[in-house]
Amino acid sequence: MADKKRIALLIDCDNVSHDAIGGVLEELAKYGTVNVRHAHGDWNGTQLSGWRERLHPNAIRPMQQFAYTKGKNATDAAMIIDAMDLLYSGNVEAFALMTSDSDFTPLVMRLLESGLPVYGFGEKKTPQPFVDACSTFIYTENLDVAEDEAATPIQRPAKKNRKELRGDAALVKLLRTAVDQASDDDGWAHMGGVGSYISNNSSFSPINYGYKKLSDLIRASELFEMKRGAGSAIYIKDARV
Length: 241
Known about the structure:
- By secondary structure, the chain is of the alpha/beta class.
- The chain folds into two domains: 5-143, Rossmann fold, CATH 3.40.50; 162-238, LOTUS domain-like (Nucleotidyltransferase, domain 5, 2-Layer Sandwich), CATH 3.30.420.
- It is built from nine helices and nine strands.
């Protein structure tokens, strides 16, 4: 991919599980190189012991933040300052925020205003405003790494079947709108154009439905006709047309 980006990964260790870090890094590898990896939290305590074990194997730099006042989350402020410093440094072209805290929603919007995509990773408890603000958002439960090394390394969610996909009205509307906007006069749309429209207009990720690729999800929905073009190109058309 010619447009591989330099990505800054900022982790709110107080609000997200360490189990998903392997899956997060695997997912980000699709978009570019994660050259900045900062994990924020109070490393003096024992509550981050799980994260502490993941730092060196994944080349993550711990960022110490003392809890100056009980009940106040100093980590949030430290992460925001870190993000803005990185933004103004000009050394990164995208951000990844690993957190389940909606307090970072204004930060996401500020980064987007600067023209940088923001990939979000959080638990299913993550408030919807933060999910919607991100360029792409993936629930970390879908990326959890099994503790038993003999078990399947990555436990992905069960794939949504045809009925479940078609029953998701918001998903159906998004897919049909994307195909319509990306289609030529004959009604056929290039899969790449459909994917670009979706990524520019929502935080959608096929992984949240159990699929690695958008094309696999679309094929399973049976909402569209599909055909192959030159090389590996895939074209789709609304089956109702």
